[in-house]
Amino acid sequence: MIEASKLKTVVLSMDSSQLPLDLGHRPALGREDFLIAPCNEVAVAWIDRWPDWPGHALAFYGPSGCGKTHLAHVWQSESAAISITADDLLSHDPDELLVKQKNCILDCPERDLEISAELQRKLFHLFNFVREEGGTMLFTGQEAPARWAVSLPDLSSRLSAVPSFEMGSPDDFLFEALLVKLFYDRQLTISKEVLRFLVLRLDRSFEAAREIVSNLDQASLASQREITIPFAKAILQKFHSQN
Question: End of a domain among 117, 140, 166?
């Protein structure tokens, strides 16, 4: 079981001031720390409860970049689950995919509702196989499994019964805390003014935060310049033009 989260205070030097933040903190077991906030704390609580889940399947859903895949990796590190894609299912039978491990993650494509008849048949087979073998399934996607447009009645009834928990986009506090942590991980100093400038202009996603911090780090190193608002503005304009 993953240890209960603890509050961690991060204090970063910000020019002539300091920015203290109390962050919900948990180790991502080989990946970046996962920051806990109201938009994801219910999902995190269910990860902590594993294997005491109400059934053999659970689902996290939400917009792209909300952290559901990251949280699935946290569970994967704890459960040794195997990640399975739709292509994997179409190419192999469940007993071929789950030879030594009966826990699995099915990370659904962005278009959750585009599920062919053959994929539905394979998914139904996987669902039953994991249950019969005493394993656990974790679904991730943009929509809850109960909303997937499936035509196979038995699969539809099973998906409708899967407990599903929504993960929202990061709010201002979580997004700001995420940026602080990403800068801190790279040993970069950043003023509160630059931080707020970025928070107000970036898409609320973990991917956007990681990409802009990486771009700022590389550009700052290349030019040997501090990250000021004009500097961040120039890099942000370039970042947006490429995305």
Answer: 166
60-70 per-position pLDDT tens digit:
999 877 888 88
Same domain, 179 and 229: yes
Q: Is residue 1 part of a domain?
A: no
Least confident residue range of 5-9, 78-82, 115-119, 210-214: 5-9
Count how many domains the chain has: 2
Which of 148, 166, 184 is at the close of a domain?
Answer: 166
What's the predicted TM-score (pTM) here?
A: 0.72
Q: What is the per-residue pLDDT across 83-95, written as a single tens digit (0 to 9) for each? A: 998 889 999 999 9
User: What is the extent of the structural domain holding 13?
Assistant: 6-35+170-241
Same structural domain, 47 and 28: no
**57/101 same-domain check:** yes
Compute CA distances 238 → 37, 47, 232, whole Å: 30, 38, 10
